[in-house]
Write a structure and sequence with these properties.
The protein is mainly alpha-helical. The protein contains 22 helices and six strands.
Length: 453
């Protein structure tokens, strides 16, 4: 099923809406089931509330399961309230176990128990197993719907089993080979299976060098590994190498999006407040601790300026360049912070090493400082008629930018060494620290050369 372009989708949706309006069930099903699952989900979200009961009536629980698992949590909770309990139980049985676990893990315990008790025992047990693993681990992320085969089987037998069982698996591009104790022994790609002679044994086709992850591995490490090896799925094993599930690339994409959103919130000092669906009160509650802390840092900045009050009184023109020094220092430090957090997240920092990274950022800061200083040495005398003032501002900016890049690069590394998320070295925090240092450098140089200003 291919996705429709915007114009074709609107026309197609209109036909489906008309079929619903005039209660033409057969026409509705014929049109709707031809849609890509993403288009099906978008059409469902476009429905008026009074049309949804008809939607549930026309679609089987299995057909609606594909739509439900693509919805975000807020929409899922609304839909569950609208569904008949028996219909909902059947729907959960047809969903992938990891998608059911994701939903149940977010709802109240009583509601979760009710859903699990209504599901088939085998499906419910799989969901309970996934829920038993720590949040954001490979075990909680994996799905139990995968294909496992034995080394002694022939290609013909495996192909026959695939026709029967493959429809239930989340992916069949990789077939995992296990021994009699369910331990991971190898992997066979679907391409190798299709192109091999029917009488060939799996043992002669499989690769024994399998890239796998342990169930308690952090989801970020799983995502990085799948990205590094360009995999469509990765097997999940226990500490004794027993195959218990797989993590697929679509789940990894969700992890990367989730982690990127989390890091963005950390860098912007707005962790947990990046969701536009939360209330103003909730957003303010999450942001306020950082804002209050930064407010106290701002008092330190004010204190630095107060320490050089005599210098400012003597040369009032120095105050003109305070915003320039502060903004330049903060912006440069935040750029280095973003570069470092990204390199730590992708693993490129480990390849380059701390010293090489600091040298690069310091070199970048020096070059930026030289460019900005040279620009000011031309502009300031032209506007204010003072070459010494231009030197003071230019030298201050050169030193400030050189140091700001190092601070922006080193602080996330220190936080990482403390086993914390490097993204908590937020942009506002780095900016404020660099503001203070920039002002100290600026006024120290200005005070030293005040006799020449």
């Amino acid at each position: 099923m291919n996705r429709l372009n915007e114009e074709a989708r609107e026309q197609y949706f209109d036909q489906i809406f008309r079929a619903l309006k005039y209660k033409k069930k057969d026409e509705f099903l014929e049109l709707f089931l031809e849609l890509h699952p993403t288009d099906q989900m978008e059409l469902f979200l476009d429905l008026y509330d009074d049309k949804r009961p008809m939607f549930y009536e026309y679609l089987s629980a299995e057909e609606f399961a594909e739509i439900f698992q693509g919805l975000d949590f807020e929409n899922q909770t609304e839909v569950v309230k609208e569904l008949d309990k028996t219909y909902a139980a059947h729907m959960f049985n047809f969903m992938q176990s990891d998608d059911v676990a994701d939903f149940i893990g977010e709802i109240e315990d009583e509601d979760a128990k009710a859903i699990l008790s209504a599901m088939e025992q085998e499906d419910a047990d799989e969901v309970r197993e996934l829920l038993s693993y720590p949040d954001e681990s490979a075990g909680s992320l994996m799905t139990k719907e995968f294909v496992a085969i034995y080394a002694h089987e022939s290609v013909q037998n495996v192909m026959a089993d695939l026709r029967e069982k493959g429809i239930e698996a989340e992916t069949i591009y990789y077939l995992y080979v296990i021994d009699e104790k369910d331990k991971l022994a190898g992997v066979v790609s679907l391409r190798d299976l299709i192109t091999a002679p029917l009488d060939e044994t799996i043992e002669n086709l499989m690769s024994t060098r399998v890239v796998s992850v342990e169930a308690h591995t952090d989801q970020e490490d799983v995502a990085r590994m799948i990205s590094d090896y360009d995999l469509l799925a990765a097997p999940v094993v226990t500490s004794t190498n027993e195959l218990i599930g797989i993590v697929t690339v679509d789940d990894v994409i969700d992890v990367l999006e989730e982690e990127a959103t989390e890091d963005f919130g950390e860098i912007a000092a707005a962790k947990g407040a990046t969701d536009v669906n939360i209330t103003s009160f909730a957003a303010a509650k999450k942001r306020s601790p950082w804002i209050i802390m930064l407010m106290f840092f701002g008092l330190i900045t004010a204190g630095v300026i107060g320490q050089f009050e005599e210098t400012l009184e003597e040369i009032v023109l120095l105050a003109v360049f305070i915003p320039l020094i502060m903004d330049s220092a903060g912006n440069t430090g935040t750029q280095s912070l973003a570069v470092m957090v990204r390199s730590l997240a992708t693993g490129s920092f480990e390849k380059k090493g701390l010293w090489n990274t600091i040298k690069r950022e310091f070199g970048t800061g020096i070059m930026l400082g030289l460019i900005c200083a040279a620009t000011l040495m031309i502009i300031v005398p032209f506007i204010y008629g003072s070459y010494m003032l231009a030197f003071v501002v230019g030298a201050s900016l050169f030193l400030t930018l050189s140091i700001a890049t190092i601070i922006g690069a080193v602080v996330p590394v220190i936080i990482t060494k403390l086993k914390l998320d490097p993204a908590i070295a937020s942009g506002p925090f780095i900016t404020t620290v660099n503001d203070i240092l920039g002002l100290m450098i600026y006024f120290t140089i200005a005070t030293s050369l005040i006799a020449y200003l």
